């Protein structure tokens, strides 16, 4: 749930330059994204083809975070999520591109963005899934603390060879 001074709202095209700056500034603290510098504009990393929706967090009148929701598509990731959840790809939606400015960490912004994405996924009747690099321990702990479960591990093409496999997680339906 958002903090009283944090506002979660739909992302607009005008947000992309500020989000690219936030992504770059938080990278030394979080290690996200794994490949840096990116081989393409950061705005193209943030805005994904096939997005269902995307949100930003505003705190003290500044953009400080982002999350989006995407379909799972096909490939290794979809195979791991479908095998791990027992659901078809069309029954899943991925939380994607979740990041928070290092200056806003610890203020509930990441949790509020995550909750917004999960609520949107649940509203469509799908199961939330995501992937996370194991070395990003703060992110892994956030997901585990909020009920996410590991359903598989894999090595996407972008993962450096010296990293542990990526965790593929799902959030079980808590509606009974």
Task: Report the oligomer.
Answer: single chain
Distance between the termini: 21 Å
Kindly state the number of beta strands: 7
Unreliable stretches: none
User: Mean pLDDT, as a whole number?
Assistant: 92
CATH topology category name: Aminopeptidase
Q: Secondary-structure element order, as H and E?
A: EHHEEHEHEHEE
CATH superfamily: Gcn5-related N-acetyltransferase (GNAT)
**Could you give a short account of the major beta sheet?**
7 strands, mixed
Could you give the order of strands across the largest sheet?
A: 1-2-3-4-5-7-6
Please report the number of helical segments.
5
Describe this structure in words.
- This protein is α+β, with helices and mostly antiparallel strands.
- It has one domain: Gcn5-related N-acetyltransferase (GNAT) (Aminopeptidase, 3-Layer(aba) Sandwich), CATH 3.40.630.
- It is 31% helix and 29% strand.
Short description:
The protein has 176 residues and is α+β, with helices and mostly antiparallel strands. Helix content is 31%, strand content 29%.
How are the SSEs ordered, and which strands pair?
Elements: E1 6-10, H1 16-30, H2 42-46, E2 51-59, E3 62-71, H3 76-85, E4 92-100, H4 109-123, E5 127-133, H5 137-145, E6 149-154, E7 166-170
Parallel strand pairs: 4-5
Antiparallel strand pairs: 1-2, 2-3, 3-4, 5-7, 6-7
């Amino acid at each position: 749930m958002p903090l009283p001074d944090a506002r979660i709202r739909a992302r607009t095209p005008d947000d992309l330059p500020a989000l690219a700056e936030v992504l770059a500034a938080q990278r030394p603290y979080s290690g996200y994204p794994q490949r840096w510098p990116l081989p393409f504009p950061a705005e193209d990393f943030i805005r994904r083809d096939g997005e269902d929706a995307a949100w930003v967090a505003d705190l003290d009148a500044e953009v400080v975070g982002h999350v989006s929701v995407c379909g799972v598509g096909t490939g290794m990731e979809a195979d791991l999520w479908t095998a791990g959840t027992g659901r078809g790809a069309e029954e899943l939606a991925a939380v994607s591109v979740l990041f928070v400015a290092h200056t806003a960490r610890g203020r509930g912004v990441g949790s509020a963005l995550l909750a917004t994405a999960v609520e949107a996924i649940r509203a469509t009747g799908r199961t939330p899934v995501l992937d996370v690099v194991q070395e990003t321990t703060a992110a892994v702990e956030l997901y585990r603390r909020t009920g996410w479960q590991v359903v598989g591990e894999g090595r996407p093409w972008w993962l450096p060879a010296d990293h542990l496999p990526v965790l593929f997680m799902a959030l079980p339906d808590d509606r009974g």
